[in-house]
Amino acid sequence: MIELAAVRKRFGRHAVLDGIDLQVPTGARLGIIGPAASGKSVLLKLVCGLLRPDAGQVMIDGTDITERSEEGLAATRARIGFLFQNYALFDFMTVGDNVAFPLARRGGLAEDEIARRVSARLRAVGLAGNEAKMPAELSGGMKKRVGIARATIAHPEIVIYDEPTAGLDPVTTSKVYDLLRADQETTGATVIAVSSDVEALCRFVDTVAFLYQGKIRYQGAAQTLTDAPDPVVRQFVRGDLEGPLEG
Amino acid sequence: MRGLIELWGVFVSTIAGMIRGGRPKGEIVRQMHAIGNKSMLFIAVTLGFIGMVMIYQACMQFNRVTGDLSQVGVQFIRLVTSDFAPTLTGMMLATRVGAGIAAEIGSMKVTEQVDALRMSGVLPVDYLIVPRFIASVVMTVVLTTLGGAIMYVAGGLTAHYQFGVNLKIFFDLSLLNPAHLSLGLVKAVTYGAAIPVVSGFCGLRAKGSSEGVGWATTAAVIGSSLAVLLLDFILSVAGFFVLGEALR
Ligand SMILES: Nc1ncnc2c1ncn2[C@@H]1O[C@H](COP(=O)(O)OP(=O)(O)O)[C@@H](O)[C@H]1O
Ligand SMILES: [Mg+2]
């Protein structure tokens, strides 16, 4: 269970998150949507301690991680896979080494076993045989999929995807979500996914939270999102130009 | 002020990180190659020319006053060893190595690669700064030795061919003592340690996008150069008090 209680985060004078309360039960799939720069990525980074909140608590399975030192967070982070919005692939390593990194850092596995798992994972994301390439040689969509492979290689209990399909074509988007769903169904992991592709996201997650002006404005079942009672949510989801939503 | 405290924190965790380990295999050698190979010619040329100019000026001055050039080489090697070689090398490395380290680490920071490392339980200081720190300390000593030797030889040849100073008299090492050597060594090690810590710190503080990397790089060059100058002053004063007579 991931729990955020009254979490606040500001950068300079700009309050990005202004009192977030959110609960994600173990094994649940939560989608987060919201306008650009509403703090979705910041929220995800708070969950794994990459950023610290100015106030409030972030609890993972009942323990508060906000006071932990960087070393103390390592054990928690080992349980989390994170896909960064801009891939964050290590540009000085091959694709294979990138994907292997979380496993190799953890230790306890023989090198050929790691190599076997890496090639299996790359095959699963449709990039079989690309181990020896450098990230700079890949297209944006391929980098995204390498990022997904790296995030999921160690079978984490919690997987966080920041814009897993941004910049991908509709067919690849569907393929990626099929892959994420298949993964989640086999591992039973808790998933938090941020996406601007609301429709595709809603087919993947059970619950959706709408982040707006520093708060969770709405939270509800993914299926009924287009009929949400809140006009702001409806306007955002339907992409209407007219309505109460503020830039 | 808070920046200075954080900088000190990076230094302390670098030292701790050397004991902790956790750096990538072969990285120190790679960094030594990156720092040493790229700077060798640069330092050889710079220190060689400065050596020539200094001796030229010194001999001109001596000629005007006493005309006795027999002491020039003997004094020169003492200055080269205890100050010119380490400090000029340090200044050169502060620009080159400092900029390189800040740009590399800074671009990793703004592309979230540093965060990706942290997600895998890696401490960025251990993984990124420690190997550069060790490599820089070793290579600064090596390059100081090389640069100092070239400076000395270039100075000696200038004295010989321009002013007719006997080579044997110029290259007389009898007045060079362990105090000069140890002061020079301490300076080289200190600069070699300061440059990657200051630059790595600037890189890790890079924010935003490529513009942030630019800022970090500039800050690293200025910061490392100032650190070398400041440490030169501190160590020279300290050396004077500790070694005293031996330096004279
Ligand atoms: N490390 C940071 N330093 C300063 N401002 C930041 C930082 N990270 C995010 N922000 C700001 O916080 C706001 C929300 O950013 P983000 O979470 O990336 O938005 P998005 O919802 O599009 O993912 C933006 O205005 C951004 O400029
Ligand atoms: Mg974002």
Detailed description of the structure:
The complex is a heterodimer of chains A (about 250) and B (about 250). Chain A has helices spanning about 40-45, 70-75, 95-105, 110-125, 140-150, 170-185, 200-205, 230-240; strands spanning about 1-10, 15-25, 30-35, 55-60, 65, 80-85, 160, 190-195, 205-210, 215-220. Chain A is of the alpha/beta class and about 250 residues long. In chain A, the strands form 2 sheets. A 6-stranded mixed β-sheet of chain A has the order 6-7-8-3-9-10, sandwiched between helices. In chain A, strands 2-1-4-5 form a 4-stranded antiparallel β-sheet, covered by helices on one side. In chain A, helix 6 runs parallel beside helix 7 (about 200-205). Chain B has about 250 residues and is mostly helical. Chain B has one domain. Chain B has 8 helices and no strands. Chain B has helices at about 1-20, 25-65, 70-110, 115-120, 125-165, 165-170, 180-205, 210-245. In chain B, helix 1 (about 1-20) packs across helix 7, helix 3 (about 70-110) packs antiparallel against helix 8 and helix 7 (about 180-205) packs antiparallel against helix 8 (about 210-245). Chain B is elongated, with a radius of gyration of 20 Å. The two termini of chain B are about 35 Å apart. The mean pLDDT of chain B is about 95. The complex binds adenosine-5'-diphosphate (ADP) and magnesium ion.
